[in-house]
Sequence to fold (895 residues):
Amino acid sequence: MQDPDHKIESIWTYLLIFLLLIALLVGTVAAATVNLGRWNIVIALVIAVAKALLVILFFMHVRHSSRQTWIFAGAAFLWLTLLLAGTIADYASRNPPVPTSDASQSPAHAKTTVAVPAAS
Amino acid sequence: MASIPYIPEYQVRETYLNARYSIASWLLTKDHKRIAVLYILSITLFFIIGGSAAVIMRLQLLTPHSSLVEAETYNKLFTLHGIVMVFFFLVPSIPATLGNFLVPLMIGARDLAFPKLNLASWYLFILGGSLALTALILGGVDTGWTFYTPYSSTFSNTNVIFAICGVFIAGFSSIFTGLNFIVTIHKMRCPGMTWFRLPLFIWSMYATSIIFVLATPVLAITLALVALERILGVGIFDPNLGGDPILFQHLFWFYSHPAVYIMILPGMGVISELIPAYSRKRPFGYAFIAMASLAIAILGFLVWAHHMFVAGISIYGGLVFSILSFLVAIPSGVKVFNWTATLYKGSIALDTPMLYALGFIGLFTIGGLTGLFLATLGIDMHVHDTYFVIAHFHYIMVGGAVMAYMGGLHFWWPKITGKLYPERWGRLAAVILFIGFNLTFFPQFILGYLGMPRRYYAYAPEFQVYNVMSTAGATILALGYVLPLIYLLGSLRWGKDAGSNPFKAAGLEWQTTSPPPPDNFDQTPIAGEPYNYHEMDFANV
Amino acid sequence: MSDLVAHQFDDLDQQTEAGTLGMWTFLATEVLFFGGMICGYCVYRHLYFPAWHQGSLVVDNFTFLGISSGAWNTAVLLTSSLTVALGVRAAKLGQNRFLSQMLVITLLLGIAFLGIKAAEYTHEYHEGVMPGPNVFHPDMDISADLSRAAASSGKSNIDLRREFQLFWVFYFFMTGVHALHMFIGIGLFTYLLIEARRGCFTPKKHAPVEIMGLYWHFVDLVWIFLFPLLYLVR
Fold:
């Protein structure tokens, strides 16, 4: 495994990355004040991912780390994506709930007309 | 007193067992071999507890409407059986016992990467187990080991939180063990031990550790949410209060399906060691078996919703998870074919570990194939929540994993204890176990197909004959477990001393004494090609 | 610190590599740990967007100098990541005094984060949004906003209230678990500071600083995602 010690970042690099991070923070707060409908979440997440990449690559030195480290870091996020994708895919692929008060149409509506059996 | 002449040859050799004798030297040990022994003792205790619950359940099911136990008690029994057997026996079993003992030895290391973390793992396991047993003593839990909501989070009046805390804490025990194995296997292989010279047992420990590390945290957080719901009375998973029970099931099974691969992969690793040793042949398709372990670990993460086909997931979700469940059977099939090919033209010795290994291959195949039945949406509609499912997973977990554990325990018993077990008793117990197992669980396939539901304390009269067969089988099965308990313990006192390599097996663990010295090897070994049975000169081994 | 190299390792390099890989593996487990919570959050945000929107507005409403406490906290953590990175660099170069200074600043920033969090939680308690059967009483202004949101999304008041409470369950649970990790990080860095003061770290033996630095960065990473998810639902 390549020794990350051999490459020591300069202080200026760290400061620059820090300023970028703050700029992105300002950006994400500003974007939240504008109503962009469904794009708000996309922009917020894109900026969050950008910040995360900066922290991971530069502050956590993954930029200079071995392929093994890249694989370990990447695997973690890949697995998280798996969990989110599989679960949300289920919800997203169900028939859209019809907006009635009939609770059997969707899991979300809590007004049940059927008596919930109590514990015996 | 006459002076005894000093004879160096009879000087007692220092092993990990006799290095120090105090209780503190065991309870504060950092030696992976001692920790393995601690785990062997602990999981045996949990096996007895979980098994006792099963015995009472099988007695209850002797007659269609037995009054041996009440309905609520029966619910507590199957919950206890599931929680103890899954979380406190099967999940730790081979990894924490044989894995802890053998991983450093097989790769030529002195210990695991983080010995103190290893000890912490055992303590977490004991703490978690104590909390679960507290739940039992305080009156039990009746939610089933699957803790389905909203029953577990809102309606159950039993000690759910204790049980959840127990499982939560034991989960961290697994995570740390998996972490330890991954780092050890990556960083501490001896000179010459390249990845494709690793024993197949190590490959399967590595694959299992991937699952430990990536799946268990999700279970932890999910159970924490259930506990939160119980304490706060909010509706995270309770539909009456806006929650979604299916979300719980997604999160729960994201761990619990890979968990079943945690339970079987180590067993497969053991079989991959036993079959070559007792055929005196290299494993057929070594690289394929190794890659199949990784494939099972990874693909096993993609199939969790096949436990939820009838729960209300979308039909498209059902389709996708069904296809993926078929895919995950392929690497398992590759392994079965490769073991069989290894047997072909091998010099077979039907000693105890081999009997367990052969039993494994047959029973695991049946269990695995019936898994494909269950992965088929149309069939699952009918047999979900019946005894068909119970038979399926017991074929894999008992006919597979437990038999592999027994086989491995016997095979490496001389290495762990320095004593030989009595071979005739071993063979007898293995045969009794095989017969008892099949008599217990094969009728359950039929019961499930005929429609008997699981987790019911009573049943329709037409199912009685199969239930009686099953209970009769269970008594024979129990005998099959009691016998080894007796003769293995007996061997400690009366067994013959084992040499370094009593079975003439390949592997670095056999190149050191039985039992090994505290630092495993007198000199760091240099690894060559594994499974060099074809090169072994029997006269000199 | 006694022996430089533990007995199971052959040399310091192997020990350092093992420690680093061990930390990365642990961080992977943490990604999945927080990931479970995030999965639940995502599902309910998808199902109950109006309630999530309302909740986020309340959370984001707690401001110092016109900037929400969440944004302040993000800035605090980003700065602490900078000081950690600078501290690790100092350890690699043997600059012990600078290392100690960076560790002190990191600790102060960590404590500041928790302080702001505590102020937030207190404020939210007074607003009546802490979940729980006898505690959840959103105050007048919030209740009025809720009713309006309920009316415009076609749900009943009770439904939206339940969904609103669910938001708060996730908010407190996610930020609470994160805060717990911050506490642990502060504990680890206090240990590092003590060792640094004793001159334990040299360019050859700086691994603990780097490894625990990875942990701190990870806690920052989690917050980088929690902030938009909880505070900026629009």
Observations:
- Residues 98-120 of chain A have pLDDT under 50 and may be disordered.
- Chain A touches chain B through 23 residues (CB under 8 Å).
- Chain A is about 60% helix and 0% strand.
- Residues 8-94 of chain A form one domain.
